[in-house]
Design goal:
single chain; alpha/beta; Rossmann fold; 12 helices; 45% helix
Length: 283
């Protein structure tokens, strides 16, 4: 049974969803600008031993929208995690961050590591813009001629102007194909954007574009001793070197490469991924 709640954090509202009981585990979804939904079912079985907390980050999903004319920064998202911890009254907790959420988890550990029992980075966004650009180029190179033809066909209908969400979600789905090793999962995990959540994604990502265009956090995390598990699918467009570098920089880190797997190991290799996470949490 899920418990949902809207929490006032400073001048905005965050949507939260909780299930289970035990030591708290807070999930950080990808993006920037996505929402928590895709994480719930794959991780739900952990709720038999842990309290799982999912939430939509600032300006995303069911959380309140951002003002597109008001600047925000990555550090604002990090501050939200700490404010959420305080609002939920956790002394210590575990963070599980996927993709962009992994980047946020590491930055939270830099500033508020004393509050973390451990953290798990699942195919985290690269620690610098150079690795990020390699990943984006890999995605483009993996698109087939048929993919590109269908993308062009969709764009010619001006779906974003007409708010044709079926076409927009198909556009997103095609662009997600390069992130999967097993292509059968592409059709099983269809995007579920509404016009509202799409608009929020565009706003959040647009506000962060400049900061994410040129960044490097690796030196900031050198020697950080938070107990950490880094998981990475070997077929993820994000270079394996990026996650290995996280693990090398983090003193208390363990690295696990999952073979024949893309950007979503908790979907493509669910049993292996969850088994590794449970072992890590119990260690």
């Amino acid at each position: 049974m899920y418990h949902t709640e809207y929490l006032q954090i400073d001048n905005h509202v965050l949507f939260t969803k909780k299930i289970g009981s035990g030591d708290p585990v807070l999930f950080l979804h990808g993006g920037p600008g996505l929402f928590h939904d895709y994480l719930v079912q794959p991780f739900r079985q952990l709720s038999s031993n842990y309290e799982l907390i999912f939430f939509d980050q600032r300006g995303s999903g069911a959380s309140s929208a951002l003002n597109p004319n008001r600047a925000i920064y990555i550090n604002d998202f990090v501050a939200d995690i700490e404010a959420l911890r305080q609002a939920l009254n956790f002394s210590t907790f575990t963070l599980i961050g996927h993709s962009w959420g992994g980047l946020l988890a590491v930055l939270y550990a830099v500033k508020f590591g004393k509050n973390l029992k451990s953290m798990i980075l699942v195919d985290p966004a690269p620690g610098n813009s150079s690795f990020d650009k390699i990943g984006r180029n890999t995605i483009q190179n993996r698109l087939t001629a048929d993919d590109r033809e269908e993308i062009n066909s969709i764009m010619q209908t001006n779906p974003f102007e007409k708010r044709e969400m079926d076409a927009i979600n198909r556009f997103v789905q095609i662009n997600e194909k390069p992130r999967y090793f097993d292509q059968s999962y592409v059709s099983k995990n269809k995007p579920i954007f509404t016009f509202d959540t799409l608009t929020k994604l565009q706003t959040v990502s647009g506000l962060l574009n400049e900061e994410l265009d040129d960044y490097d956090i690796y030196q900031r995390i050198q020697g950080l001793d938070t107990k950490t598990l880094v998981i990475h699918g070997d077929y993820d467009p994000i270079p394996v070197k990026s996650s290995r570098k996280y693990s090398e920089m983090l003193t208390g880190s363990r690295f696990q490469l999952i073979n024949d797997c893309g950007h979503f190991p908790f979907i493509e290799k669910k049993e292996e991924t969850l088994s590794s996470i449970v072992d890590f949490l119990n260690s």
